[in-house]
Design a protein that fits this description.
The chain is of the alpha/beta class and about 350 residues long. It has 11 helices and 12 strands. The chain binds S-adenosylmethionine and iron/sulfur cluster (SF4).
Protein backbone atom coordinates (compact mmCIF):
# COMPACT_ATOMS: atom_id res chain seq x y z
CA UNK A 1 0.00 0.00 0.00
CA UNK A 2 2.81 2.33 1.00
CA UNK A 3 4.49 1.73 -2.37
CA UNK A 4 1.35 2.45 -4.35
CA UNK A 5 1.20 5.92 -2.77
CA UNK A 6 4.77 6.58 -3.78
CA UNK A 7 3.85 5.81 -7.37
CA UNK A 8 0.96 8.27 -7.38
CA UNK A 9 3.17 10.89 -5.77
CA UNK A 10 5.46 10.75 -8.77
CA UNK A 11 2.45 11.56 -10.93
CA UNK A 12 2.02 14.83 -8.98
CA UNK A 13 -1.10 14.56 -6.86
CA UNK A 14 -1.29 12.52 -3.71
CA UNK A 15 -4.12 9.98 -3.86
CA UNK A 16 -5.59 7.66 -1.27
CA UNK A 17 -6.47 4.04 -1.87
CA UNK A 18 -9.93 5.06 -3.12
CA UNK A 19 -8.46 7.30 -5.81
CA UNK A 20 -9.28 10.58 -4.06
CA UNK A 21 -6.77 13.41 -4.35
CA UNK A 22 -5.72 14.44 -0.84
CA UNK A 23 -4.34 17.96 -0.77
CA UNK A 24 -5.90 19.49 2.33
CA UNK A 25 -4.65 19.29 5.92
CA UNK A 26 -6.79 20.46 8.82
CA UNK A 27 -4.80 21.04 11.97
CA UNK A 28 -6.20 21.59 15.45
CA UNK A 29 -3.95 23.96 17.38
CA UNK A 30 -5.54 23.45 20.78
CA UNK A 31 -8.49 21.75 22.44
CA UNK A 32 -9.06 24.87 24.57
CA UNK A 33 -11.75 27.38 23.79
CA UNK A 34 -13.22 30.64 25.07
CA UNK A 35 -16.74 29.30 24.30
CA UNK A 36 -18.56 26.15 25.44
CA UNK A 37 -20.95 25.51 22.56
CA UNK A 38 -23.62 23.02 23.56
CA UNK A 39 -23.09 20.76 20.55
CA UNK A 40 -19.31 20.79 20.81
CA UNK A 41 -18.15 20.45 24.38
CA UNK A 42 -19.48 19.91 27.90
CA UNK A 43 -20.27 22.93 30.06
CA UNK A 44 -17.28 22.21 32.28
CA UNK A 45 -15.01 22.29 29.21
CA UNK A 46 -12.77 19.44 28.19
CA UNK A 47 -9.97 18.07 30.28
CA UNK A 48 -7.25 20.12 28.62
CA UNK A 49 -4.24 18.47 27.14
CA UNK A 50 -0.96 19.03 28.98
CA UNK A 51 1.61 21.45 27.63
CA UNK A 52 3.89 18.60 26.56
CA UNK A 53 1.10 16.72 24.89
CA UNK A 54 0.22 19.33 22.30
CA UNK A 55 2.36 19.79 19.23
CA UNK A 56 4.82 22.65 19.51
CA UNK A 57 4.66 25.42 16.90
CA UNK A 58 7.94 24.22 15.30
CA UNK A 59 6.59 20.68 15.19
CA UNK A 60 3.47 21.80 13.36
CA UNK A 61 5.61 23.76 10.91
CA UNK A 62 7.77 20.71 10.21
CA UNK A 63 4.72 18.51 9.82
CA UNK A 64 3.31 20.88 7.21
CA UNK A 65 6.64 21.00 5.38
CA UNK A 66 6.70 17.21 5.11
CA UNK A 67 3.02 17.13 4.12
CA UNK A 68 3.62 19.77 1.44
CA UNK A 69 6.38 17.58 0.03
CA UNK A 70 3.78 14.85 -0.37
CA UNK A 71 1.21 17.02 -2.12
CA UNK A 72 -0.72 18.92 0.57
CA UNK A 73 -1.56 22.38 -0.82
CA UNK A 74 -4.09 23.87 1.63
CA UNK A 75 -3.91 24.10 5.39
CA UNK A 76 -6.75 25.05 7.70
CA UNK A 77 -6.02 25.90 11.33
CA UNK A 78 -8.76 25.09 13.78
CA UNK A 79 -9.33 23.86 17.31
CA UNK A 80 -10.78 24.34 19.95
CA UNK A 81 -10.33 28.03 19.31
CA UNK A 82 -7.17 28.48 17.22
CA UNK A 83 -6.77 32.14 18.18
CA UNK A 84 -6.21 31.30 21.86
CA UNK A 85 -3.10 29.33 20.88
CA UNK A 86 0.09 31.24 21.65
CA UNK A 87 2.26 31.71 18.58
CA UNK A 88 -0.58 31.35 16.07
CA UNK A 89 0.44 34.45 14.06
CA UNK A 90 4.02 33.21 13.71
CA UNK A 91 2.73 29.80 12.73
CA UNK A 92 0.58 31.28 9.96
CA UNK A 93 3.66 33.13 8.68
CA UNK A 94 5.84 30.02 8.82
CA UNK A 95 3.32 27.79 7.05
CA UNK A 96 2.59 30.38 4.39
CA UNK A 97 6.28 30.42 3.51
CA UNK A 98 6.49 26.67 2.93
CA UNK A 99 7.05 25.64 -0.69
CA UNK A 100 3.94 24.05 -2.13
CA UNK A 101 1.45 25.53 0.35
CA UNK A 102 -0.99 27.61 -1.65
CA UNK A 103 -3.27 28.86 1.07
CA UNK A 104 -3.63 28.98 4.81
CA UNK A 105 -7.09 29.46 6.28
CA UNK A 106 -8.68 29.33 9.70
CA UNK A 107 -11.94 28.37 11.39
CA UNK A 108 -12.67 30.56 14.41
CA UNK A 109 -15.48 31.83 16.60
CA UNK A 110 -14.24 35.31 15.67
CA UNK A 111 -13.97 36.80 19.15
CA UNK A 112 -10.25 37.52 18.95
CA UNK A 113 -10.23 38.57 15.29
CA UNK A 114 -10.59 42.33 15.81
CA UNK A 115 -7.38 42.35 17.82
CA UNK A 116 -5.47 39.90 15.63
CA UNK A 117 -6.73 40.02 12.08
CA UNK A 118 -4.27 42.58 10.75
CA UNK A 119 -1.30 40.59 12.02
CA UNK A 120 -2.81 37.37 10.72
CA UNK A 121 -3.40 38.90 7.31
CA UNK A 122 0.13 40.30 7.21
CA UNK A 123 1.44 36.86 8.14
CA UNK A 124 -0.38 35.36 5.15
CA UNK A 125 -3.80 34.24 6.31
CA UNK A 126 -5.97 34.37 3.21
CA UNK A 127 -9.45 33.22 4.22
CA UNK A 128 -11.48 32.67 7.29
CA UNK A 129 -14.54 30.71 8.36
CA UNK A 130 -16.37 32.26 11.28
CA UNK A 131 -18.80 30.13 13.25
CA UNK A 132 -22.09 31.75 14.15
CA UNK A 133 -25.34 29.86 14.71
CA UNK A 134 -27.83 32.58 15.59
CA UNK A 135 -28.36 36.32 15.30
CA UNK A 136 -30.36 36.47 18.51
CA UNK A 137 -28.20 37.65 21.46
CA UNK A 138 -29.98 35.50 24.06
CA UNK A 139 -29.88 32.42 21.90
CA UNK A 140 -26.23 33.10 21.15
CA UNK A 141 -25.51 33.09 24.86
CA UNK A 142 -27.54 29.90 25.32
CA UNK A 143 -25.70 28.08 22.53
CA UNK A 144 -22.17 29.20 23.40
CA UNK A 145 -22.97 29.26 27.14
CA UNK A 146 -20.51 32.13 27.70
CA UNK A 147 -20.23 34.13 24.46
CA UNK A 148 -21.60 37.49 23.34
CA UNK A 149 -23.13 37.88 19.89
CA UNK A 150 -21.60 41.33 19.43
CA UNK A 151 -18.09 39.89 19.77
CA UNK A 152 -18.51 37.41 16.95
CA UNK A 153 -20.24 40.03 14.78
CA UNK A 154 -17.29 42.34 15.40
CA UNK A 155 -15.02 39.49 14.28
CA UNK A 156 -16.94 39.24 11.00
CA UNK A 157 -16.69 43.01 10.45
CA UNK A 158 -12.96 42.91 11.19
CA UNK A 159 -12.36 40.05 8.75
CA UNK A 160 -14.16 41.92 5.95
CA UNK A 161 -12.40 45.19 6.74
CA UNK A 162 -9.01 43.48 6.74
CA UNK A 163 -9.74 42.21 3.24
CA UNK A 164 -9.78 38.49 3.98
CA UNK A 165 -11.60 36.76 1.13
CA UNK A 166 -13.67 34.81 1.16
CA UNK A 167 -15.22 35.30 4.58
CA UNK A 168 -17.54 32.38 5.27
CA UNK A 169 -20.04 32.23 8.10
CA UNK A 170 -20.70 28.67 9.24
CA UNK A 171 -23.96 27.92 11.04
CA UNK A 172 -24.66 24.50 12.50
CA UNK A 173 -28.37 23.79 12.12
CA UNK A 174 -30.18 22.03 14.96
CA UNK A 175 -33.94 21.54 14.68
CA UNK A 176 -34.74 22.03 18.35
CA UNK A 177 -32.92 25.39 18.41
CA UNK A 178 -35.47 26.99 16.05
CA UNK A 179 -32.89 29.26 14.45
CA UNK A 180 -34.00 32.04 12.14
CA UNK A 181 -32.49 30.72 8.92
CA UNK A 182 -33.80 33.45 6.65
CA UNK A 183 -32.12 36.12 8.78
CA UNK A 184 -28.89 34.22 8.24
CA UNK A 185 -29.32 33.78 4.52
CA UNK A 186 -29.96 37.54 4.24
CA UNK A 187 -26.49 38.22 5.61
CA UNK A 188 -25.24 37.27 2.14
CA UNK A 189 -27.16 40.04 0.36
CA UNK A 190 -25.35 43.29 1.16
CA UNK A 191 -21.84 42.17 1.99
CA UNK A 192 -19.59 39.50 0.43
CA UNK A 193 -20.39 36.95 3.11
CA UNK A 194 -20.76 33.28 2.26
CA UNK A 195 -23.24 31.83 4.71
CA UNK A 196 -23.06 28.04 5.01
CA UNK A 197 -25.57 25.87 6.81
CA UNK A 198 -24.01 22.70 8.17
CA UNK A 199 -25.96 19.66 9.31
CA UNK A 200 -25.49 18.88 12.97
CA UNK A 201 -23.10 15.91 13.20
CA UNK A 202 -22.95 13.02 15.65
CA UNK A 203 -19.44 13.67 16.92
CA UNK A 204 -18.32 13.05 20.49
CA UNK A 205 -20.53 11.43 23.07
CA UNK A 206 -23.48 12.17 20.86
CA UNK A 207 -26.48 10.32 22.20
CA UNK A 208 -25.05 9.12 25.50
CA UNK A 209 -25.64 10.45 28.99
CA UNK A 210 -23.78 13.73 29.59
CA UNK A 211 -23.15 13.97 25.86
CA UNK A 212 -23.91 16.71 23.40
CA UNK A 213 -27.53 15.61 23.06
CA UNK A 214 -27.24 14.85 19.37
CA UNK A 215 -30.21 12.96 18.01
CA UNK A 216 -31.26 12.18 14.44
CA UNK A 217 -34.42 14.23 14.92
CA UNK A 218 -32.29 17.35 15.33
CA UNK A 219 -30.62 17.00 11.94
CA UNK A 220 -32.26 19.26 9.36
CA UNK A 221 -31.48 17.77 5.93
CA UNK A 222 -30.08 20.48 3.68
CA UNK A 223 -32.68 19.84 1.01
CA UNK A 224 -35.47 20.56 3.50
CA UNK A 225 -33.67 23.64 4.79
CA UNK A 226 -33.15 25.08 1.32
CA UNK A 227 -36.87 24.70 0.59
CA UNK A 228 -37.77 26.26 3.94
CA UNK A 229 -35.53 29.30 3.33
CA UNK A 230 -36.90 29.73 -0.18
CA UNK A 231 -40.49 29.66 1.17
CA UNK A 232 -39.60 32.15 3.93
CA UNK A 233 -37.87 34.39 1.38
CA UNK A 234 -40.95 34.34 -0.87
CA UNK A 235 -43.17 35.23 2.10
CA UNK A 236 -40.86 38.16 2.86
CA UNK A 237 -41.03 39.40 -0.74
CA UNK A 238 -37.49 38.32 -1.57
CA UNK A 239 -36.56 36.55 -4.80
CA UNK A 240 -35.95 32.80 -4.64
CA UNK A 241 -32.49 31.38 -4.08
CA UNK A 242 -30.94 30.23 -7.35
CA UNK A 243 -27.87 28.01 -7.86
CA UNK A 244 -24.80 30.22 -7.56
CA UNK A 245 -22.94 30.97 -10.77
CA UNK A 246 -19.41 29.67 -11.03
CA UNK A 247 -17.98 33.16 -10.62
CA UNK A 248 -19.87 33.89 -7.40
CA UNK A 249 -18.90 30.68 -5.60
CA UNK A 250 -16.25 31.41 -2.99
CA UNK A 251 -12.74 30.10 -3.53
CA UNK A 252 -12.21 26.86 -1.66
CA UNK A 253 -15.86 25.97 -1.99
CA UNK A 254 -15.26 22.38 -0.83
CA UNK A 255 -18.23 20.12 -0.19
CA UNK A 256 -20.90 22.85 -0.01
CA UNK A 257 -23.61 23.36 -2.63
CA UNK A 258 -24.03 27.08 -3.24
CA UNK A 259 -27.04 29.25 -3.97
CA UNK A 260 -27.51 33.00 -4.12
CA UNK A 261 -30.17 35.65 -4.07
CA UNK A 262 -30.00 37.26 -7.53
CA UNK A 263 -27.67 40.26 -7.35
CA UNK A 264 -26.42 39.44 -3.83
CA UNK A 265 -22.83 40.17 -2.82
CA UNK A 266 -22.37 36.73 -1.24
CA UNK A 267 -23.81 33.23 -1.39
CA UNK A 268 -25.74 30.71 0.69
CA UNK A 269 -24.21 27.24 0.93
CA UNK A 270 -25.41 23.92 2.30
CA UNK A 271 -23.07 21.31 3.69
CA UNK A 272 -24.70 17.92 4.09
CA UNK A 273 -22.37 15.43 5.77
CA UNK A 274 -25.34 13.26 6.75
CA UNK A 275 -28.12 13.67 4.21
CA UNK A 276 -25.82 13.68 1.22
CA UNK A 277 -22.45 12.14 1.99
CA UNK A 278 -19.61 13.86 0.24
CA UNK A 279 -17.12 11.17 1.26
CA UNK A 280 -16.36 10.43 -2.39
CA UNK A 281 -15.00 14.00 -2.66
CA UNK A 282 -13.10 13.94 0.62
CA UNK A 283 -9.72 15.58 0.12
CA UNK A 284 -8.41 15.87 3.65
CA UNK A 285 -6.44 14.56 6.57
CA UNK A 286 -6.88 15.93 10.08
CA UNK A 287 -4.33 16.34 12.82
CA UNK A 288 -5.42 16.74 16.43
CA UNK A 289 -3.71 19.17 18.80
CA UNK A 290 -1.87 16.28 20.45
CA UNK A 291 -0.49 15.09 17.16
CA UNK A 292 -2.75 12.26 16.07
CA UNK A 293 -3.52 12.02 12.38
CA UNK A 294 -7.16 11.21 11.85
CA UNK A 295 -8.00 9.72 8.47
CA UNK A 296 -11.75 10.39 8.93
CA UNK A 297 -13.71 12.76 11.19
CA UNK A 298 -16.17 10.01 12.09
CA UNK A 299 -13.65 7.25 12.81
CA UNK A 300 -11.65 6.88 16.01
CA UNK A 301 -8.74 5.40 14.12
CA UNK A 302 -5.73 7.68 14.71
CA UNK A 303 -2.02 7.49 13.92
CA UNK A 304 0.62 9.07 16.12
CA UNK A 305 2.61 11.68 14.24
CA UNK A 306 3.83 13.43 17.42
CA UNK A 307 6.05 10.49 18.25
CA UNK A 308 7.41 10.58 14.70
CA UNK A 309 8.04 14.32 14.93
CA UNK A 310 9.82 14.05 18.26
CA UNK A 311 11.88 10.94 17.67
CA UNK A 312 12.06 10.37 13.96
CA UNK A 313 13.44 11.98 10.85
CA UNK A 314 11.27 13.38 8.03
CA UNK A 315 11.05 9.95 6.42
CA UNK A 316 9.31 8.61 9.53
CA UNK A 317 6.87 11.54 9.53
CA UNK A 318 6.14 10.89 5.86
CA UNK A 319 5.48 7.25 6.59
CA UNK A 320 2.87 8.15 9.23
CA UNK A 321 1.11 10.53 6.83
CA UNK A 322 1.12 7.92 4.08
CA UNK A 323 -0.19 5.26 6.45
CA UNK A 324 -3.01 7.63 7.46
CA UNK A 325 -3.80 8.10 3.81
CA UNK A 326 -3.98 4.36 3.36
CA UNK A 327 -6.36 4.16 6.34
CA UNK A 328 -8.92 6.58 4.90
CA UNK A 329 -12.23 4.70 4.73
CA UNK A 330 -14.40 4.92 1.61
CA UNK A 331 -17.13 6.65 3.65
CA UNK A 332 -18.37 7.18 7.20
CA UNK A 333 -21.28 4.73 6.93
CA UNK A 334 -23.52 6.85 9.19
CA UNK A 335 -21.48 6.15 12.28
CA UNK A 336 -22.82 7.83 15.42
CA UNK A 337 -20.49 9.06 18.16
CA UNK A 338 -16.73 9.35 18.45
CA UNK A 339 -14.40 9.05 21.41
CA UNK A 340 -13.27 12.66 21.12
CA UNK A 341 -15.65 15.56 20.79
CA UNK A 342 -15.42 18.15 18.02
CA UNK A 343 -13.29 20.62 19.96
CA UNK A 344 -10.70 17.90 20.53
CA UNK A 345 -10.67 16.62 16.96
CA UNK A 346 -10.72 20.01 15.28
CA UNK A 347 -13.93 20.72 13.39
N1 LIG B 1 -13.65 27.32 17.66
C1 LIG B 1 -13.65 27.42 16.26
C2 LIG B 1 -15.04 27.69 15.74
O1 LIG B 1 -16.00 27.50 16.47
O2 LIG B 1 -15.13 28.04 14.57
C3 LIG B 1 -13.03 26.24 15.54
C4 LIG B 1 -13.33 24.88 16.08
S1 LIG B 1 -15.02 24.35 15.96
C5 LIG B 1 -14.92 22.73 16.61
C6 LIG B 1 -15.17 24.16 14.21
C7 LIG B 1 -16.56 24.03 13.67
O3 LIG B 1 -17.13 22.82 14.11
C8 LIG B 1 -17.49 25.13 14.11
O4 LIG B 1 -18.04 25.73 12.96
C9 LIG B 1 -18.57 24.42 14.87
O5 LIG B 1 -19.81 25.03 14.72
C10 LIG B 1 -18.51 23.04 14.24
N2 LIG B 1 -19.09 21.99 15.07
C11 LIG B 1 -18.80 21.67 16.34
N3 LIG B 1 -19.53 20.61 16.76
C12 LIG B 1 -20.32 20.26 15.71
C13 LIG B 1 -21.31 19.25 15.48
N4 LIG B 1 -21.64 18.36 16.42
N5 LIG B 1 -21.91 19.18 14.28
C14 LIG B 1 -21.58 20.06 13.30
N6 LIG B 1 -20.64 21.02 13.42
C15 LIG B 1 -20.03 21.12 14.61
FE1 LIG C 1 -15.36 26.44 20.93
FE2 LIG C 1 -15.71 26.29 18.31
FE3 LIG C 1 -16.47 24.26 19.91
FE4 LIG C 1 -17.82 26.53 20.03
S1 LIG C 1 -17.65 25.17 18.23
S2 LIG C 1 -17.05 25.34 21.79
S3 LIG C 1 -16.27 28.03 19.63
S4 LIG C 1 -14.41 24.94 19.56
Amino acid sequence: MYNSFRETEQGGALKDSHGRVIDYLRISLTDRCNFRCVYCMPESGVCSMGHDEILRIEEIERLVRVAAGLGIRSVRLTGGEPLVRKGVVDLVGAITAIDGIENVSMTTNGVLLPAMVDDLRAAGLSRVNISLDTLDPDQFRAITRVGRLEDTLAGIDAALEAGLAPVKVNAVTVRSLNQDFLAFAKLSIDRPLHVRFIEYMPVGNAEGEGGTGWGKADVIPSEELCELISAQAAAAGLPALVPASKSSKPVGWGPARYFEFPGAAGTVGFISPLSRHFCSECNRLRVTADGKVRPCLFSDHELDVREALRNGDDEVVRAVLLAALGAKPDEHHDKVGTERNMSQIGG
